[in-house]
Write a structure and sequence with these properties.
By secondary structure, this protein is an alpha+beta fold. It has a single domain, classed as Nucleoside Triphosphate Pyrophosphohydrolase. Helix content is 23%, strand content 32%. The protein contains 3 helices and 7 strands, in the order ββββαβββαα. Strands 1, 2, 3, 4, 5, 6 and 7 form a 7-stranded mixed sheet that branches.
């Protein structure tokens, strides 16, 4: 999955991250606020990439805005690239393994958060999160990443 030069001409790009706690094996999801597109759906942390940004830079900026801090992101595990049918929108999904669960400091973009077991996804899931987690082997990828992180 090539993401270093992820800016795609004539397309809108975004990036997001799902946190996975090594100790509990649970994932952190965001509940989108009512003034956001796809309101009151559960999804990843992140957002639109600014011109010239890499997915990594975008995630760092978005995390500072959305959870109040940027964890030491030493390694982002690529999970999926969502592409719209008309190829005008791309979303890069990553997994970051943390040692333990933490409490995010939410900004107004979020209505809540939840640490959930892999495969036990809250409803309704954001459409993109649903595709990544359910249709593109996301649940299996998360379990594999967790297994590797625990060895």
């Amino acid at each position: 999955m090539e993401v270093s030069g992820a800016s795609i001409p004539d397309a809108t790009t975004a990036a997001g991250v799902l946190f996975l706690a090594r100790d509990t094996g649970r994932c952190l999801l965001q509940l989108r606020n009512s003034d956001k597109r796809f309101k009151h759906t559960w999804g990843f942390w992140g957002g639109m990439m600014e011109k010239g940004e890499t997915p990594f830079e975008s995630i760092q900026r978005e995390l500072l805005e959305e959870i109040g801090f940027v964890p030491d992101l030493q390694k982002l595990n690529p999970m999926d690239i969502y592409q719209s049918r008309n190829k005008k929108f791309y979303y890069y999904s990553f997994v970051y393994v943390t040692d333990t669960e933490f409490m995010p400091k939410l900004n107004p973009e979020s209505a809540g958060y939840a640490w959930v077991d892999i495969g036990v996804w809250p409803k309704p899931l954001h459409q993109g999160a649903y595709v990544t987690l359910s249709k593109n082997s996301g649940t299996e990828k998360l379990q594999k990443i967790l297994d590797i992180a625990r060895t």
